[in-house]
Amino acid sequence: MTSQELIKQRRTEEWRNQLRRSIPNKERMALERTEQSKRTQDLNLASLYVEDIINYSHEEALQEARRCLDCPNPGCMAACPAGIHIPSFIKELERGNLPASWRILRESSTLSAICSRVCPHEKQCEGGCIYPVSLKKRAVSIGALERYVATEEQKNREQWHTLQPTASANGHKVALVGAGPASFAAAHDLALLGYEVTMFDAADEPGGVMRSGIPRFRLPAEVIDDEVTRLKSYGVRLELGVTVGRDVSLEALKAQGYEAFFLGTGACISNVMGVPGEDLPGVWLAGDYLSRANLLDDPQKAEEALADLKGKRVAVIGGGNTAMDAVRTAVRLGAERAMVIYRRSRDEMPATNEEIEHALAEGVELVPLHQVKAYHAGADGRVARMELHCMELTEPDESGRRRPVATGKTIEMEVDLVVVCVGVSQDPLLPQVLKGLETKWDVQIVVNDDYQTSLQGIYAGGDVIRGGATVVQAMRDGRRAASAIHQALSHH
User: Is residue 174 scored above 80 in pLDDT?
Assistant: First the structure.
């Protein structure tokens, strides 16, 4: 049965027809969106490690689920990179069958507790919802509903029997290089199919960018740990602190019996702008800055590692969600003035509107239409000033985007610390050591429709093939690669 046939079959079940009739669409459309509450707390070191958005109560989840119109051709599902049967999971929630709601989520998403917190929903599923598309109203809060169901599953795992049985061992071994979202997803599916799966990662803790790059106030460590616990219960092994390609070669792993490999090493190298003074003390790259805050669970250590920002002026360069994470981290570390410098206007910022609003509510200043020209040191040799180009936007080009161009004017601003958030690149190690591996720009791995690289038995997914990917895109890549690996090895 195709996915479209399954959607139609589920939608025409009698209980669902009755549920739709129980509240007329006009009444559903009149309901206001139920917002998740934000935790009231002092923005200090301790709040770095406390999730700031509060999960729905049962009543709030039901209230929001009732807004879903159960569209026959759901635009939300088409806009979801994982293709989750969104109206189906929401309607199961609305009728009170939470285990069934969870199972529908799990068909498409192996990382619901994580994706529900970190996905840019307004640009994905919620962007395709009929409310903003046709009714000029706010979308159903799909991410919040997914988080609610995922949280309930974690609390009720034994009663719901949601740990799936693994197939009997099939005698095949698969190695996953990197322990980020793509590898988590591949490991999940392969383990359930009976493969002996090992994840290798250079870091001391699994999770990749989920652990190092996303602040704990957005994604608590225990949420990642819970997914690791699930994988371990399925027999997945972890080899941490091991850099494949340096500490151990793929040839050595082949000699140990591994027959297929998945490369999910992400894009962990922060880009630089190449402007004068970028190497001054006090100018940080996003990855270094965020990982120090995220990987130190002791606030005091984080404060020491990131320098005491109390009363300091912090400038974050860039306009994406990483920039919002960095600036909101700076606020919690005590910055007196926290600014986001972006070369376009707010309307063009790639960060979600929700993340921008959170930053503004915390006192962050947006400085749009400015771009760094140079950094200058003070008497102590650390960054003290930055020179900015004043920018303006052109008329839209063929792509429909307005380009920022310098006006010729510049301004100077005093700063004590800068965080550069202008994208990431892949680690060149594996492309360098794997002879014959086809790449773009020497680092981005090229794959075919089955996620297989130019080398037999080696697959890849996530940031290594895309540049920058969201967690849900990486998860989808990992699952599709796992399916291709299974096809290849089961036909041996």
Answer: yes
- Sheet of 173-177, strands arranged across: 237-240, 196-201, 173-177, 258-263, 458-460
CA–CA dist 225, 230 (Å, integer):
9
Instruction: Write the DSSP string, 129-150.
Output: SHIIIII-SPPP-HHHHHHHHH
Q: Residue 430 and residue 253: Cα distance in Å, rounded?
A: 14
- 8-58, pLDDT tens digit by residue? 999 999 999 999 999 999 999 999 999 999 998 888 878 888 999 999 999
Q: Which amino acid is at 208?
A: G
Give the Cα separation of 325 and 306 in Å (integer): 15
* Domain boundary, last residue among 110, 132, 160: 160
401 and 256 in one domain? no
Q: Judge whether 100 lies within some domain.
A: yes
**Do 153 and 7 reside in the same domain of the chain?**
yes
Alpha carbon distances (Å) from 394 to 317, 344, 403, 404, 410:
21, 10, 5, 6, 18
Q: Which residues contact 455 (CB under 8 A, 6 or more apart)?
A: 434, 436, 437
The candidate with the shortest Cα–Cα distance to 227, out of 114, 119, 106, is: 114
pLDDT of residue 297: 61
pLDDT tens-digit readout, 71-112: 999 999 999 999 999 999 999 999 999 999 999 999 999 999
Instruction: Return the SS3 of 367.
Output: strand
- The residue whose two tokens read 């997803």 is 185
Instruction: Give the CATH number for residue 229.
Output: 3.50.50.60
Q: What's this model's pTM, rounded to 2 decimal places?
A: 0.95
Q: DSSP state, 458?
A: E
The answer on 285 and 215 residing in a single domain is: no
Q: Convert the pLDDT of each residue in 454-479 to its tens digit.
A: 999 999 999 999 987 799 999 999 99
Domain, as residue range, for 294: 270-420
The structural domain count of the chain equals 3
